[in-house]
Write a structure and sequence with these properties.
The protein contains four helices and seven strands. It is α+β, with helices and mostly antiparallel strands.
Length: about 140
């Protein structure tokens, strides 16, 4: 049984004013323009957990590609929730929902904890400096 309530919504219904997205806006200056472009698309959804005040503790934004692969566009756990298993539960939900598919994510090399976390679930680096942000691309076949 899960310690956390993990929920799912269409991306268009997410609250992007939530504080969890602040660091994403710092790291990715185009975050809001990207978001406005994609949040209404039917191939996007968000898996999340909220705290007792209604703020996101963790979010995973997924994009379902026409070739059957899944891009984990965002995977973020509030630092105050680190070490409690929430990230693991969120990732297990992503894995459960995408069995038989390839899932990939692009990560800045400075996020070493996230890179180690992803490696624990079998993600491997398949490409380095794969986009304009010099992110690493990691993938796993589930």
């Amino acid at each position: 049984m899960s310690k956390f309530l993990i929920q799912e919504i269409d991306l268009v219904n997410a609250n992007f004013d939530d504080p969890i997205f602040a660091s994403l806006r710092q790291d990715y200056p185009d975050f809001d323009s990207w978001l406005n472009k994609v949040k209404h698309l039917s191939n996007r959804k968000m898996i999340f957990s909220k705290d007792d005040k209604g703020f996101y503790r963790a979010v995973a934004i997924l994009k379902y590609n026409s070739n059957g692969s899944v891009k984990l566009s965002t995977f973020k756990v509030n630092q105050s929730s680190w070490g409690h298993g929430l990230g693991t539960e969120l990732m297990l939900q992503v894995i459960e929902e995408n069995k038989g598919k390839q899932v990939y994510i692009q990560v800045k090399p400075k996020y070493t904890k996230l890179l180690r976390f992803l490696a624990h679930f079998g993600f491997i680096i398949v490409e380095s400096k794969s986009n304009k942000n010099d992110d690493l691309t990691l993938a796993v076949s589930l």
